[in-house]
Amino acid sequence: MALKRRNLIISVFALAATAALLLWRPTVLIYGLQAAGLYAAIAIPMGLVLGIVHIVNLAHGEFMMLASYATYFTCKALGMDPLIAIVPTAIVTAIFGWIIFQLTIRRALKAPELNQLILTFGIAIVFSQAINLVFTSQTYKMPLDYVSASMDIGELTFGIWSFVFVAAAILFAGGLNFFLKRTTTGKAALAVGQNPKGAAIVGIDVYRTYGLVFALAIALVGAMGALFLTKSAIFPTVGSPFTMKSFCLVAMAGVGNIPGILSASVLLGLTENFLRAFRGSREWADIVFFVLIIVVIMSRSLKGRKS
Amino acid sequence: MKRFVLAIAAIALVVSGVAAQGTIKIGGIWTLADITGKQGSAAAQLAVDEINAAGGISGKTLQLIVVDDEGKADKAAAAVEKLATVDKVDVFVGGMASGAELGKIPSFKKYNKVVMSTGAAGSATVEKALGPSPESDFYFHLHPWDYNQGASYAEGWDAIQKKYPNVQIKKIFLAYEEGAFGKSSWDSTKILFGADKRYTIDGAPFKSALLGGGDYTAVLEAAKAFKPDLFLWAGYDADALPLLEQSKAMKFSPGIYLGAPPGWPIGFGSSRLANNVMLYGMWSTAMNDTNAQSKKFYDAYVKRYREEPATYFALLAYDAVKILANGIKAAGTTETAALVKALEATSYASALGETITFKPSNVIKHQGITRQKILQWQGGLQEVIWPFEAATAAPVYPFPAWK
Amino acid sequence: MNRTLARSLPVAAIGVAILLPMFMGDYPLQVARNIMLYMALAVTWDMLLRSGQISFGIAGLFGLGSYASILAVVRGGMPGWLSIPFAGLFAGLAAFLIGFLILRLRHTYFSIVTLALGEIFRIIIHNMHDFSGGPEGIVVQQGIIFGGASRNLYWLTLAGLAVALLASYWFEKSKVRFALTAIRNNEISAKSSGVNIFRWLLLAFVVTSAIQGMMGGIFVMSYGFASPETVFSADFTLLPLAMALLGGIHSTVGPILGGLLLGLVSEWLKLQIPYGHLVVYGVMIVVVILFMPQGLLGLARKTMRAAGRNRK
């Protein structure tokens, strides 16, 4: 009961703060949400892998980078829009992800978690350096008219295309929630994530489930690769910063808590953009990310000890 | 440890080869995974082959030995040591990122061989680490320092406003990437444009997409609120189109939209937004029509490597080898004191559209190029606007408002 | 026979390491310096790992030490050689204070917080323009330590590595080993058998951080500059991890072997394949992890065991 009341107070407070922000600095809210959408949409697949397969995939961003390059050159050759390529890219990268899983990660699953970490670090180097070798470090960007779509409300003019990332994030989180809670395969995956030995005893093929979940996560990353291409230029190291960001967001939400990634991203996006809006605090926007992570993790660990 | 010793010995054996008589060795150090280093080393090899095909230097052939610095200080230092002690090169060429260059400087100083440097614009660190003459006399810095660039832009915009009275600049906004490159641009812009209060300057940092950023909304909000006549961004090629697209989404259209990245993304010119964007640079393919040197280099490079030189760093590396070769020919030796003296008399008509000579800069004695150019994207090509003697087109002003 | 060999091998290795400058040129010495720096980081990272705590904060502490050293010299007028132990002291003190906050965290949460702290150090240095030199970095104007003499710089880095190895040896041979292993294997039973977990963790964290900071001091004094992107580079976290793992964790020898392997191979590949050597480097890391999950040390143990069985 007390918990419910506290949650209510927190949500009322958050709503009031949002309303105040909307009136005072509407752009902070708009751009903060857009940034949050991008963060969350990329972090959610990593949360899925960490929550069920229990590996930190340091090649996470590199998978997205590969998907972006594949989309770019396919679209260029066929004169296609990257938006049309989202689903095909997701399918192709899922297969690719599954192959990589079977060839490498699967073989290291019994080893200590550090082995998996360095293994994916090695994979990340191979991916980004191979792309560098073939396509050089030069950047590629698709010129697309619709990414400059804008909206006027009174004095305010802002870009609206990036809201597509918010939609993607909500879709990913909702879809995964449905998958894990309502489908047989999803329920099995969740069971494997919580207790692999127990799941094996009741007859679930643990390794097959791991492979499937990994492929699903890479499919989402692949879809993001195509979507990301609309907005951003691509180059060999474009993915790697997102690996660290995603990892931090997943940790902030708590391993296994996919909806939590959404709220962590919103908190982060809004705070960053709030600080960027003022001359005195602009340069410190980056630090917020890390301070928030520490605060959230520390307070959770304190709470955990009390209960 | 024994295995270590053996392995080192093996490395030394494999790479050293036999020092041929009558060979002048040039040690080249670039970051080869980067397009500037990849093409810089290729262009330097082109220059070496051209010189050898024309009979070498007084009967001696040139040999270029390239080692990767991986953009890291420790690897860069190892590269200098390897070239100096194992290959026993006579002179050095190369360089791009200041961080790697700083790793090389202690070793460069130790060997005191002539260095023809093609990059490293950070005066606050690289020039300071080199120190004043005479200790740094071996170091010939081709690329302009950050303050040289700032000064040349101030000069350029004065000249453009004088020649084209419809161009009016009062307020300048600089969006600079938060790293070393952007920060030094901001420092020199503030000093050189803000000096006599003719201009009002403001600026804000952003995180370049190259370094994991790519969100330009906040910096563009700040720029829009300032209402600048000239909007300048100092970032990387990855920022070019996304920044422009975001500007359009926010209906931010200053009279001059100017970018200063070291290179541009592939296909930038084909974007509809790109037309009439201005840029800072040293060279463009448009100069092939007005400059015979430029055309000669361009044709030779494309013929050999089947790709376009993406940035001016390829030309700098090419010129660096040519200048070194001329100096060695004049001095008749690669011995440092004599070669420095010969190089001081350099007057080299560069493919970059200017004659390169060496003059003292703020700290060191041998600074090559001091001017950059002001260019404009017109119909998918980078046309030179200033300096007027190298101009290939007249400026289009103002930057078209977004339709 | 085997035992004498096992005992004389380290002595021989130390002798060779000290005397190396007598019969090696400047290039091998430079490569050795680069490798030894990473080795020291790998060994110290492993020392903390023996308690089960995975730190991602090596680059953060290395960078902190680097700036402590160079700022003490440039802003405080401290002699270069003194700034190196000062860097260690500074990083150790920082770790002591931070330790109270974070050493109660476990697993991924500890890793992520150490990573975040490293990034916070970097951003603070990056933003303190006037004092730290900001993003462009800072230069020691009077030149580098020992006038840049290769041998002295080599011995300096070797001394840094020696400190790391001695500390690691002490961890292995004293009751620190018992405490850390107990914490790693079963924290609850360690607690119930009277091990003061926090105190031992703090000791390990402070000692390893101090050495990492000191190596930062050695790095900046040997090159005469520091910049945020150089000294806080993720390389200083990931490469030592990879080295320790490829060599074999929970030992002193493992990280040394791994450092030798990765360091020599990366330098050799760079010369053999100027364009694209990093692809091969990545493939090698993947292959070694897959086929030698226990690292070189594990492989050596396995072969020795097999050889022993054959003899019987």
Automatic annotation (TrEMBL), chain A:
InterPro entries membership: ABC_transp_permease, BCAA_transport_permease
Entry similarity comment: Belongs to the binding-protein-dependent transport system permease family. LivHM subfamily.
GO cellular component, one term: plasma membrane
TM ranges: 7-24, 36-56, 85-105, 117-138, 158-180, 210-229, 249-271, 283-302
Bilayer disposition of the protein: Multi-pass membrane protein
Subcellular locations according to the entry: Cell membrane
Protein name: High-affinity branched-chain amino acid transport system permease protein LivH
Pfam families: BPD_transp_2
Gene Ontology MF terms: transmembrane transporter activity
Keywords: Amino-acid transport, Cell membrane, Membrane, Transmembrane, Transmembrane helix, Transport
CDD domains attached to this UniProt entry: TM_PBP1_LivH_like
Species whose genome carries this gene: uncultured Spirochaetota bacterium
Domain of life, source organism: Bacteria
Keyword Transport belongs to the record: yes
Record-linked PANTHER family: AMINO ACID ABC TRANSPORTER PERMEASE PROTEIN, BRANCHED-CHAIN AMINO ACID TRANSPORT SYSTEM PERMEASE PROTEIN LIVH
GO biological process assignments: amino acid transport
TrEMBL record, chain B:
Boundaries of every Leucine-binding protein domain copy: 23-378
Entry-linked SUPFAM superfamilies: Periplasmic binding protein-like I (SSF53822)
Key words, A-Z: Signal
Source lineage: unclassified sequences, metagenomes, ecological metagenomes
Protein name stated in the entry: Leucine-binding protein domain-containing protein
InterPro entries: BCAA_transport, Leu-bd, Peripla_BP_I
